[in-house]
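Why do we care about 3D structure at all? Because function follows from shape, and shape follows, mostly, from sequence. That is the central idea of this module. The next example makes it concrete: a single protein chain, its amino acid sequence, and then its structure expressed as C-alpha cells.
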Amino acid sequence: INHGSKRIAILFKKQGFAIKIPRIRILEAMHSAWDARNNDEWSYIFFFRKSSPLYTTAYSLLFEGIFDNWSERQFSKDYGDHPFIVPTVFSFLGLINIMKLGLPLSREVNMYYTIRLTENPELIDALREDGHHFMNGCNFVIYNNHIAIVDYGSLRTQEVVFRNFSTLNTLPISNEPAN
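And the structure:
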C-alpha cells in the first residue's frame, strides 16, 4: 500500500494491477472550518467563494483525490497507448481506479533518470512547472520496456506530459543503470 497526499494505491503485484482510491479527509475539513470560525473568518465558512482559503482547503481535503482519479482515467483514454503512460483501465466515478502495474525503478535507474531529466534543456521549463511529479521516482515504473508515469491525475502534470511526449519517450528502457 502506497500513501500519497491525495490518493492511496493498493498494489496487487501477482495480478499485475493497482487500485487507487482517493483520500477523503472529512475530519480535517471540518477542523479547518472550525479553525476559520474560531479565527473570526466567518466569511470563509462559505465554500462557494473560490477565492477563500477554506474553499481551497476543503476542495483539497475532500475532492481533489476523486478529481485526480477521474482526470487520470480521461487522460488514459485519450493517450494511454503512448509508451510514457501506464494505462488506467477502469474508473468508477473517480472513487476507484484500476491501473496496470509496472516494475518499480531501481535506485540507480531512478538517479540516472532524475539526472537525465535535469540535464535535458527541452525539459527544464516542464520541471519548473511540475517538479514534484518529475523528480519523485515513485511516480515512474518500467512498463512495456519504457519508463512510464503512474501518477498523472493532476491537470498540470498532464499538460507537461502532453507537451513533452516526444522527449519523454527517449528515456532509458531497462532497469539497469546506463553507462
